[in-house]
Amino acid sequence: MDKKLFLQTFLQSPSQVGSIIPSSRFMVRKITNLVDNANPSSVAEFGAGTGVITRQLNQLCQEKNIDLYVFEKDDRLRQYLSEQFPQLDIYSDALLLPDVMKEKGLNQVDCIVCGLPFTLFPPELREKFFNLIYSSLAEKGTLIMFQFSLHMLKTLKQQYRTVDVKFIPLNVPPAFVYHCQK
Q1: How many CB atoms lie within 10 A of CB 110?
Q2: pLDDT, tens digit, for every residue of 69-90?
Q3: Domains of the chain with CATH codes
Q4: Residues β-bridged to residue 114
């Protein structure tokens, strides 16, 4: 069901989904390990899709008592996520993160996991997201972002103290995981 729904959503909104199938277990494992190593008390996930990463993040967050905030813009995917994770609040737009933080009594979050297809966004929207992510992260916060190109590397290196990139060849399409420290 995950793959079929993901593909249908991609076909209807390729500029919002950015891939034809959910992330591979290799990418999910890499992202989850990076989150675990960051030792956060709060995590926000942008672009949860069908929840392949959310599933592992949720498990990690439950085990370690970490707050998890999940964002998915597509209505059908958000409904699917709500059914899969009834214990989580699934928010409609990652740009609402400051409102959610205020509602939850947070000044910032420790880690943001982002799968938004930035290369498909207009420059103004991309810049808006990058500013929001940076300002929402705690002082030594971590951004873990996956993309299907290296187009965002220069921008991230200008904004973050350290940027490490891992290539995940066993993903369709092959992907890059950016690990950025504020």
Answers
A1: 22
A2: 999 998 988 999 999 999 999 9
A3: 2-12+21-142 (3.40.50.150)
A4: 46, 145
